Amino acid sequence: MTAPPGPAAAEVFAAASAHLVAGIAERQRILGSGAYETAAEGAEVRLSSGRTVLDFGSYAVPLFGHRPAPVLDAVRGALDGMPVSTRLLANPHAALLAARLAALLDPGRLSRVSFGLNGADAVETALKLAIARTGRPSVLAVEGGFHGKSMGALAVTHDPLRRGPVQGFLGDARHVPPEPDAVARAAAEAPFAALIVEPVQGEGGGRALPPDLLRRWSADAHAAGALVLADEIQCGLRRCGPVSVAVAEGVRPDAVLLGKALGGGVMPLSAVVGTPELFAPLAADPYFHTATFGGHPASCAAGLAALDLLDGVAERLPAVAAGLARGVADLAAAHPGIVADVRSTGLLGAVEFTGEAVAGLAVLEAGRRGLLAAQSLSRPAVVKLLPPAVTSTAQLERAFAILDASCRSAGRRVARTASVGSG
Ligand SMILES: Cc1ncc(COP(=O)(O)O)c(C=O)c1O
């Protein structure tokens, strides 16, 4: 892992603080102890200070580890040939990746693909197609669900804090509680175009929804003439076990949405993989939904190489997932005063603290000690742990030793604050 000499850290943070989002710049400065990121490989990131930190964060992108060699080679190949599409001529990377995804997810059912760059692009596309297909300008989503922050995606994201300032501009979405008859009840009240659901809620705190519940909801949505969109942007591609959790659980979604790791941890890429029925509006009008960089050749080349790495993830998954499950259980046992609950599904672990402040402290302490992790966006008392599949046993042990020390330190600070408050 080598990095070319870069600018001084002070210059980088001054520029970030003055011209990017100052609050985020400050958090990054604290997490990196005043250094910025310079290089990465596997589960580790090198900082400008020369220090190396373990990466269990990164918005769940480096599932295959940072800079997997086959993905880098594929992207270099695309850059050497034709890095940007004309959009007017066929591009082989996009076409072949679409065929691979169609063969991989639910062959014969989910046969059409639309590419975007971010997860929210895929959410926007799927919602737009479902609304146009059914002619119903309303959708159902789930309490605790996260689907992105662009306006359409935010309409289905269940995050009152981020929705509040733009509520009046958001589309018509109702959020149902995780109860078996919630979708049937909603259908009886008013028609909806689609149900969008994360089989494992990532930003909602690492919660897996029961397969029985998902199957019942899907049947009820279909009975009501609505479509089912499985948002697997965070939990799919084997992060939580199967390539698609919804397909593996027999939910029969009309589309699976992928993103984050789809570009191999190297390029931005997302996809809607859906039925011809969902894609009918594009059969009627091919230009109903297009975007300049959708199906970007270098991203699709990365995606093709990433899919080749999925078998390797399947091989590593049992060992890393078991270490993660053991590690969070040990944390809960060791820190009952500040850890309220823990859970994990595959390579998505979650530590629920007794409050948002102590979770924030634990994250900052972990960063200082050499582990990157993040609070869940819409449930900030929960710290998510997202180890890459290539994480070694020694790295997992290091991560949990850091988390143990961080919890101890955060617990002491909480106890001190409480005693000052009561004294
Ligand atoms: C399940 C899910 N859907 C959608 C998104 C939005 O993806 P992006 O941030 O790439 O737009 C996220 C991001 O965390 C996500 O976890």
From TrEMBL:
<comment type="similarity">
    <text>Belongs to the class-III pyridoxal-phosphate-dependent aminotransferase family.</text>
</comment>
<dbReference type="InterPro" id="IPR049704">
    <property type="entry name" value="Aminotrans_3_PPA_site"/>
</dbReference>
<dbReference type="Pfam" id="PF00202">
    <property type="entry name" value="Aminotran_3"/>
</dbReference>
<dbReference type="InterPro" id="IPR015424">
    <property type="entry name" value="PyrdxlP-dep_Trfase"/>
</dbReference>
<keyword id="KW-0032">Aminotransferase</keyword>
<dbReference type="InterPro" id="IPR050103">
    <property type="entry name" value="Class-III_PLP-dep_AT"/>
</dbReference>
<dbReference type="GO" id="GO:0008483">
    <property type="term" value="F:transaminase activity"/>
</dbReference>
<keyword id="KW-0808">Transferase</keyword>
<keyword id="KW-0663">Pyridoxal phosphate</keyword>
<dbReference type="InterPro" id="IPR005814">
    <property type="entry name" value="Aminotrans_3"/>
</dbReference>
<dbReference type="InterPro" id="IPR015421">
    <property type="entry name" value="PyrdxlP-dep_Trfase_major"/>
</dbReference>
<protein>
    <submittedName>
        <fullName>Aminotransferase class III-fold pyridoxal phosphate-dependent enzyme</fullName>
    </submittedName>
</protein>
<dbReference type="InterPro" id="IPR015422">
    <property type="entry name" value="PyrdxlP-dep_Trfase_small"/>
</dbReference>
